[in-house]
Amino acid sequence: RQRLLAYFDQAIEPCGNCDTCLEPPQAWDGTVAAQKVLSAVYRLWRERGQRFGAGYVIDILRGKPTARIERYGHDTLTVFGVGADLSEQAWRGVLRQLLAQRLLVVDHDGYGTLALTDGSRAVLKGERHLMLRREPASTARGGRGASKRVKETVFLEPDAQVRFDALRAWRAETARSHGVPAYVIFHDATLREIALSHPSSLDDLARVSGVGARKLDAYGVELLHCVGVADT
């Protein structure tokens, strides 16, 4: 809120009580880490004509010898294992921020695969320097549930949080009715982006990463209702 008010030449004293005041976000030089992620996505597409989701790309970076990686021969890629110095959680944090900065996008093919953007090239060539936000230590100690709570507290304003909660409740009910896990409907990252962008039409919704044509047709109207759009 302080940064937002400062943009409009207004000021507010730190409250001293919220998570951000008690444990201010720390930044680190994420340029090399970003280059590793982007290079992995690039090589998978350029050398193999393949695209994969975040979890699989992280496994490649960390050098995880899974049966799937060995089956595809991805353990022979030059990027295999180049990110073994970071934890899976740390890599997920890097990926989230690259998505937020539009240096990566979730391809609108319905499968949640990663693709490069026009902005990726400058990072890969070292022409753009990236400072990334380091996840608070309390997030790592608190487990997955605590991680989600911290992220939501830090990144979502009250109105967006209400929309995010409504979207998650809708997703849970939809997943139950279809007999599938919740992530098959939409990942949290997609719901969070919808909550933040507050789309007012199907065209707006189509621009959200993770909302492909198939899912837009299946769930678009319901999603808009969740964020308070009565008519489409």
Structure, described:
There is one protein chain. The chain has 232 residues and is mainly alpha-helical. The chain folds into 2 domains: 27-135, Winged helix-like DNA-binding domain superfamily/Winged helix DNA-binding domain (Arc Repressor Mutant, subunit A, Orthogonal Bundle), CATH 1.10.10.10; 156-226, HRDC domain (DNA polymerase, domain 1, Orthogonal Bundle), CATH 1.10.150. The chain has 14 helices and 4 strands. The chain has helices spanning 2-7, 19-22, 31-48, 54-61, 67-72, 88-100, 120-124, 137-141, 143-155, 158-178, 182-185, 188-197, 202-206, 213-226, and strands at residues 26-29, 104-106, 114-116, 131-134. The chain has a two-stranded antiparallel ribbon. It has a two-stranded antiparallel sheet with strand order 2-3. A hairpin with a 7-residue loop joins β2 (104-106) and β3. α3 (31-48) packs across α4 and α10 (158-178) packs across α12. The chain starts with a helix and ends in a 6-residue tail after the last helix. The relative contact order is 0.11.
